[in-house]
Amino acid sequence: MLETGVRRAMASVHAGNVRAEDALKGNAFGGRNIPSRGTSVMFVLPALGAGGAERVVNIVANALAARGWRVSVVTFDDPDEASYYDYAQAVTLLRLGVPRRRQMRAIAAFVAAGRVRRLRRALSTAAPGIVISFLTRTNVLTLLAAIGTGLPVIVSERNNPRLQHFGPVWSWLRSRLYRRAYGLVTMTQGAMDCFPPALRPRHWVIPNPAVTAAQAPVAGGATKGLVAAGRLVPQKGFDLLLEAFARIAGEHPDWELVIWGEGPERTVLENAALRLGIAARVRMPGLSARPGGWAAQGDLFVMSSRYEGWGNVLLEALGAGMPAIAFDCPWGPREMIDHGVNGMLVAPGDVAALAGRISALMHDAALRARLGAAARRSVDKFAADDVVAAWEAIIVDAVAMRRASLDARPRPTIF
User: Residues 177, 255: one domain?
Assistant: First the structure.
């Protein structure tokens, strides 16, 4: 059965021996005052694109600003780069103008050093009460920039740390620097277990928030669409999905495969569709005009990822009431899908089994309707308000701890 989602995660949130929920209630730190919501919170991201981490920061930042926190989001992208997600006017956006591009190793090291310098300057200017960084490389750069500042830095891993590789230099830096962080957030326990205790003295598992059923677009339409979404990279397994669809396309001439998203593998995937003889039945329209808009244009969703950190697109599809099939990859799908109740799980990488599940659901409109209705209800377990409350609890915890530490410093004696 499905876990109890965010509520279960909240029950397992700890900072040392202090429960972060208690920090929100004022019970932590021996009854000392907790920080006011006017404290400054800074999020750090590589860019403001259409990714899952960007979506979560957008939801949490807007909600915290509405609750009275002073919120800023700092990115490395160019100042004129547009954000895919809409931020509230109360959220300050600061772009440092040092975006990530493909470069020679020596130049890349120089650029990374420039990012650290600019981010350190931003930390000094803004003087936030807490810094929250997302994604591995950005986490490393943020921890480097914060050295000597005394600022609590929470780092958040957003993928599968065991299967997502960054090369020896970044991996070495992560192994040395994460122990300097105030704490570590992951979306699943499986991801957290990748890190030894020394790298996570404080740690929290917080699932991603769902678009609620009331806000979600309605799935379905005049055409029968098998839909997938995500960045066009090998991790997402769209090559496997093309193979699965090719096996059953002849049985279902009234269905097409639509893969939403953009990325470096576009040409590879287009050539694969040609080779498999299904190019006329496959569309890749790029990014949807609005976040989650793609979910209103399909009848059946498939997530074919080889591995995940969570799988935001799966949660979006469920929230839209779309029946879903996913590889049971590490990690994320099993947290969201109760097999046979609100979706279907398939053994990771098993193309034949995936094709069979897809075909069965294409044949069975009643089953699709039943799974879709259950899917829409199931996302209540990941309500955005609960997720924001979990993040806010951690922020209160960290800021109060820092304040207590500053208060405990010896004061100079005046003679």
Answer: no
